Amino acid sequence: MLVSGLVSAALFFHAVTGISGFSVTTSTPTVRVRENEGTDLKCSYSADFGRDARVEWKFKNLKGSQTYVIFDGKPTTPYSSRVTMYESNLRISKMTVNDNGVYDCEVSGNSKFGEVRVTVTVLVPPSAPVCRIPSSVTTDRPATLSCHDSVGSPPPKYKWYRNGTPLPIDPHKMSGFQNATYRLNPDNGDLKFPKTTKMDMGDYFCEAFNDAGPPQRCRAVKMEVRDVNAGGIVAGVIVVLLLLVLLGFGIWYANKKGYLPKKSESKPKSNVVYQPPSVYGGEDDDGDFKQKSSFVV
After folding, report:
1. Are residues 242 and 153 in contact, defined by beta-carbon separation less than 8 angstroms?
2. Whose C-alpha in 22, 25, 98, 156 is 20 to 30 A from the C-alpha of 147?
3. Please, what's the b/e burial string for 64-80 (b: 16 or more CB within 10 A of its CB; e: otherwise)?
């Protein structure tokens, strides 16, 4: 009677709280470690899995590719030189930026399965970003300035400067920038001008930053904003005129040398055929002598 009461109480507690006896937990759900340093990833599980519980560790990188770190109680080949397992915990030495991602501790035993996830961020300061800044743009035309750093971890954010002054992400909320039309993306480093104006002219540089180290900047480049290229238009017109002159000269020269076919002159054809009068009469004479109007007795 007492045993059945305890069982009933346990089932009632489980139904109310939702807590199962089979549990897998970690004391390090988020780990941040500097590059080339080591770290421990913790994993523990309840005794319900049994003394012969199977523990495996999997790793999924930022691109979604997944691989085993611990399989069948041993480190896999890619990790054998820098990974050790003690109890159910994982120790990794000399972390690199390629170790960024999530690590899953999976426990199975007594026909049950449980897992817990540890997110790892390897801290790498940014390097000097690669900036692409046009040296000259035309008014009322779009322009894009780009900035990117592929080294920093976590992925750095970006900030743009013009003439040494930082550009706010939302210019309409800052005094002195209400008339600005640019769009700045701090996540990918793009600075876009839908239509450039004279006020957009200046010296530009970009800064990449994260919490792993000091920010880094690219070299400043002066962006000129010019009006429509009138000189180019004039040059284009002159080139077209020269081509027309050359074409005309070529036609004249070919005609002079007789390379072109001449037009044949057509003369109107007469329908009357002239035949001189015959002294002996025409073909219509039947041999008899006929008096002509010019005959005189």
Report:
1. no
2. 98
3. eeeebbbeeeebeeebe
For residue 193, give the nearest of 131, 148, 138, 130 by alpha carbon.
Answer: 138
Q: What is the Cα–Cα distance from 227 to 243, expressed in whole angstroms? A: 28
Q: What is the pLDDT of residues 263-293, one digit of tens each?
A: 655 555 555 555 555 544 444 444 444 444 4
Going from the C-alpha of 48 to that of each of 5, 19, 20, 85, 107, the distances in angstroms are 21, 13, 10, 21, 11
List the structure tokens of 61: 């990188």
Average pLDDT over residues 15-24: 62
Kindly list the distances between the CA atom of residue 288 and the CA atoms of 282, 285, 294, 295, in Å, as whole numbers in the listed order. Answer: 12, 7, 17, 15
> How far is the C-alpha of 135 from the C-alpha of 27, rounded, in Å?
53
Instruction: Give tens-digit pLDDT for 218-248.
Output: 999 999 999 976 566 667 778 888 888 888 8
pLDDT at 230: 57
Residue reference for tokens 């002509």: 292
CB atoms within 10 A of CB 159: 21
d(CA 31, CA 122): 8
DSSP per-residue codes, 184-199:
E-TTT--EEESS--GG
Nearest Cα residue to 79 out of 98, 102, 62: 98
* Residue 199 to residue 188: CA distance in whole angstroms: 24
List C-alpha distances in Å: 80 to 83, 92, 103, 255: 6, 10, 16, 87
